[in-house]
Amino acid sequence: xxxxxxxxxxxxxxxxxxxxxxxxxxxxxxxxxxxxxxxxxxxxxxxxxxxxxxxxxxxxxxxxxxxxxxxxxxxxxxxxxxxxxxxxxxxxxxxxxxxxxxxxxxxxxxxxxxxxxxxxxxxxxxxxxxxxxxxxxxxxxxxxxxxxxxxxxxxxxxxxxxxxxxxxxxxxxxxxxxxxxxxxxxxxxxxxxxxxxxxxxxxxxxxxxxxxxxxxxxxxxxxxxxxxxxxxxxxxxxx
Length: 239
Prior knowledge:
Blueprint: E1 28-31, H1 37-44, E2 49-50, E3 60-62, E4 67-70, H2 79-86, E5 91-94, H3 98-106, H4 119-130, E6 134-141, E7 144-154, E8 157-165, H5 170-185, E9 189-193, H6 197-201, E10 204-207, H7 209-219
Parallel strand pairs: 8-9
Antiparallel strand pairs: 1-3, 2-3, 4-9, 4-10, 5-6, 6-7, 7-8
Helix pairs in contact: 2-5, 3-4
């Protein structure tokens, strides 16, 4: 499935933020505001995301250039990860423990995010989850949460925020399940914000911010929903 947009769309201006194009070279756009659902949805719909350091410091909103995404056709989970899913070593669920995934991403070994996931962020994104705009995929082993990934969904956009593991391959397994699900549901844009060596090994690439914003403008208007149960087969991702 191609994730290229089928039509051109001029990005709209955000309601509560300056245009993303006015960010500093490092990507910082504006300081201040609150972590609430209205601001978060406006931000993600226009290529902006919060990246705080602590609940005691001013909130900074960012729009990076370039922007990292994962094209579904280029996603390359390891064969070992797929074997562990196929063998049943990991059981995968969606939206079973959203807050648990966020907490896992915020602390402990194997976090692939960091302490920027503050208690205020957990509360705000949990509320966004309750409103149907944030979702998680969890991996379990013998009834214990051992990995997961969470993010924000608007139209055909899924903005993956962070993932964590407590067992080897558990976070990558969750991401593989997520990618298969997004493909099956008809999503067109999987945003991972920053390119890292880890996401690069999985197939992440970068786009100029202007190109990203054009694709984003198309995707957020598409009638796509996350659904209520997992769809797609991660084993087909390397076919």
